[in-house]
Structure formats: C-alpha cells, structure tokens
Amino acid sequence: MKKWYANNRKRTKGLEHSMLKQVKRWWLRFFAFAMVIVLASGCVQASEKTNEPTQVTSINQQTTEPVRQTASKEGHRAESETAAVSHPTSEQPAQGKTTVKEPTVQKKAEQSAVAAEKKAPVQASVTAVPEQKQQARSTENKAIATTAAPQVESKKPKETKAESKKQKTVLFSIVADKERGTVLPPTVVEIKDGETVLDALKRITREKKIQMEYRGVKATAYIEGIDNLYEFDRGAKSGWMYRVNGIFPNKSAGIFPVKDGDKVEWLYTVDLGKDVGAELK
C-alpha cells in the first residue's frame, strides 16, 4: 500500500508540474499578443497625427495660391502703367489700337438693338394673348348672365303654382257639456275639395285619437257619440249639434260642404239646442 501511495503521489506531482508549465506558456502567449495589439494601435494613431499637418499645409497652399496669382497680376499692371508713363511715344500705337476697336463696339451696340427689336414683337404678342383671354372670359360671363336671367324668370311661375296648390284648412273645435268641458280646442284641419263636415270630423278624431261613432251616410249620417258622450246621456233632449261660421245648418253633416277658412264647431246640447244658441223650427 505504501508503494502504491508513493507512486500515485509522484504521478500527481508530475501532472501538476506539467499543468503549471502549460499555464505559464499560455499566459506568455496572451501577454505577447496583447503587446502586439497595443503597439499596432499606437502606430495607427501616430500615422493619423502625422497626416493632419500635411492636410493643413495642403489647404494653406490652396488658399495662398490665388493670393499669389492676384498679387502677380497687380504687379504686372503696375509695371505696365509705369512703362506707359516713362515712354510717352508708346501712346500713339495704343491710340491706334483703340480706333480699331471702336467699330467692334459699334457693331455690338447695333446687334443688341436688332435683338431688342426682334424681342419687342414677341413681347407684344405675349401681352396680347392674355388680353384675348380676358375678352373671351368677359364674353363667356355675359353669355352666362344672359342664360341665367331666363332661369330666374322661369322660377316665378313655379312659385305662383306652389301658391295655387296651398292646402285648404278649416278651424275645428269640439265642446261637450259643462261637466266635461272642451274635448278639442280650436284646431286647424286640412280639407280637400268636395269634403263635408263629417269628413273633417272623421279626420281630426282619427288624428287626435278621439272616440267618435256615427250611423248612416250622406243625408242620413248622424253623430251618435263623441269622446264616449252619447245622445240621451244627459236626458231626452241631449245630443250633438254642429255650427258653421256661427250658423246651425238644417242639413246632415254628411252632405254639408266645408270651404277654406270655415269655422266648424261641434257642441253637445242638453235642451234641443236652446242652451247653445240654436233655434230649431
């Protein structure tokens, strides 16, 4: 057992020693790689810094070149002026040259005048076009106005027709005895040509949902009850009567015609009409 234990201990020590060596190697490699990266980045930054002055100098050169050119031109002009002052005999050829150039200036002036004359008609035609358009628009507006006028006139007959087609109406009311009072206050009722008092009564009671009962037709029509108040409910002389424009007709409501603007009243009597102002013959 002691030998086996000793052998195992030797083996473990050998493995530990080999592992330490490998770790040291890897650390050295990593350190070397990091140093290389740091050096490379430093070189790049240094190169960028060196490029910046060259760019600045190139820009300065570009800006100074035009200044030099202008300075050289001004120097040449000054030299030429001084030469002209110092040598007065050289003015004669210069004068001759100016006389040669004068016709060219006159030609240019003539050409510009001719070009202006050519442009003038074009401008006149261009200005004439809007005037023609304005004239055309004015004529169109006049035509529209003339066509619109008959339309306004044509509306007037339509209005007169609408006025002629106005609906005819009567003023209708229903009054019961003293106990019940008014069943229907004065109300406007539309009527048609040829309608009777009974037709108007049927329409208004249907619209206002008032109970109404009658018997017979035309000349034999007779109102038995309105609003559940029937004849003979208040005695042997009680019943319903109607009045048109203050007059009690002696005709049945089924044949008495109504006209536009009439005042129709249905009254309940308890004394054969004497209590409501009717005089029966």
How would you describe this protein?
This protein is α+β, with helices and mostly antiparallel strands and about 280 residues long. It is about 60% helix and about 15% strand. The protein contains three helices and seven strands. The chain has helices at about 1-85, 90-165, 195-210, and strands spanning about 170-175, 180-190, 210-215, 220-225, 230, 240-245, 265-270. The strands form two sheets. The protein has a four-stranded mixed β-sheet with strand order 2-1-7-6, covered by helices on one side. The chain has a three-stranded antiparallel β-sheet with strand order 3-4-5, with no helix packed on it.
Low-confidence stretches: 84-103, 120-127, 148-154
- Principal-axes shape call: elongated
The portion of residues forming beta strands comes to 5-15%
Q: Report the sheet with the most strands, covering strand number, pairing sense and barrel closure.
A: 4 strands, mixed
Return the average pLDDT rounded to an integer. Answer: 74
Spatial sequence of strands, sheet with the most strands: 2-1-7-6
Instruction: Label the structural class.
Output: alpha+beta
Write down how many β-strands occur, each being a DSSP E stretch of 2 or more residues. Answer: 7
Count the DSSP helices: 3
* Overall radius of gyration: 63 Å
Give the helix proportion (percent range).
55-70%
SSE string, helices as H and strands as E: HHEEHEEEEE
* Termini Cα gap: 161 Å
